[in-house]
Amino acid sequence: MLLYYITDRRGLGGNPHEQRARLLDRIAEAAGAGVDLVQLRERDLPAHDLEILAGEAMVRVGKNQGAARGTRMLINSRTDVAVAAGCDGVHLRSSDVGCAVARQVYGADRSAVIAVSCHSPEEVQRAAKEGVDFAVLGPVFGKRDAPGVAPLGLQMLAEGCRRAAAARQQRPMPVLALGGVTLENAPACIAAGAAGIAAIRLFQEHSLTEMVRRLREL
Known about the structure:
This protein has 218 residues and is α/β, with parallel strands linked by helices.
């Protein structure tokens, strides 16, 4: 099961300085707990500030035991910042440049991870055909901060996973479930075909070590 922590420093409380410090601590804790991927999703930050934060986050992950287990750092949307900060990859929104363009920015580095957000099985299928490394599909169960957004449900998640497998049969693209995922409904996501889960609050509002341990037990 792939575990994908998506950051939101403003959800950690405190003044801006405290939020930043708590975010870096949380990223280091995530790596130590064995979270596979961390997406730095601080979209309000200017590119320069985001690059500095990303560089510090990479140091925190690199100094942590979790880095040896393959914890990878991705930047939301900004491929240029991801490259400049030496991050492992970029997470593209559905409205961003395509996978091919992102890979051109990374140049000869074929190890760069390209992920994409999807909101329908059709978008998952398209991402798989474009060569994306993995897709995040949601919201599966809804979003607490966007009650007007209709959840896709487990059936659409399963359909997205089937389309990903059909589009690339030799090396199926992993699909991660996002949106309202909890410890209680995570097993249903895996049963529907998801390769893992992506979340903000699940990893920010609980003990990371304990949460990762319980998720791994699933």
